Amino acid sequence: VHLEESGGGLVQPGGSLRLSCVASRFIFENYLMTWVRQAPGQELEWVSDISGDGRKTYYTDSVKGRFTVSRDNAKKTLYLQMNDLKSEDTAVYYCKVSALSARGQGTQVTVSS
After folding, report:
1. Residues 70-92, mean pLDDT to the nearest whole number
2. What pLDDT is recorded for position 22?
3. What integer pLDDT is reported at residue 73 of this predicted model?
4. In DSSP terms, which residues pair with 92 in a beta bridge?
5. Sheet holding 67-72, edge to edge
6. Other C-beta atoms lying within 10 Å of the C-beta of residue 73
């Protein structure tokens, strides 16, 4: 299993970013995919899930209405569109496939003026 995130960066409060996670070496469409994040000095926090067919999505309360998870199974890519970013969204964001105990290397998102 290989997962590679990208799209992080420095953004001002209220800004947007789109994270991507390219998957390989497993049958991507068969698995629920997850975004998690880890802020400095904090534990890993679940952010969002999306079912294998993309029809069901789930979010932690703090990002509902601001973040949108999606996937393109043909491209084996998971996305996280993040709008109206806040300082408390600053973290390293990881994609993971829990059923295979796999996680990417993460991408840093910093929200600061």
Report:
1. 98
2. 98
3. 98
4. 38, 108
5. 2-6, 17-24, 77-82, 67-72
6. 15
Tell me if residue 63 falls in helix, strand or coil. helix
Q: In the predicted model, what is the mean pLDDT of the chain? A: 97
Q: Could you please report the per-residue DSSP string of 10-46?
A: EE-TT--EEEEEEEESS-GGGS-EEEEEE-TTS--EE
Q: What is the pLDDT of residues 7-62, one digit of tens each?
A: 999 999 999 999 999 999 999 999 999 999 999 999 999 999 999 999 999 999 99
How far is residue 61's CA from residue 7's CA, in Å, rounded to a whole number? 23
| pLDDT number for residue 25 | 95
Q: How far apart are CA 94 and CA 100, in angstroms?
A: 15
Cα separation, 76 vs 52, whole angstroms: 11
Amino acid at 108: Q
Burial of 7 (0-12, 13-18, 19+ CB in 10 A): middle
Q: Which residues contact 100 (CB under 8 A, 6 or more apart)?
A: 1, 26, 31
Q: What are the Cα distances from residue 38, in Å, to 72, 77, 79, 80, 97?
A: 25, 21, 18, 15, 16
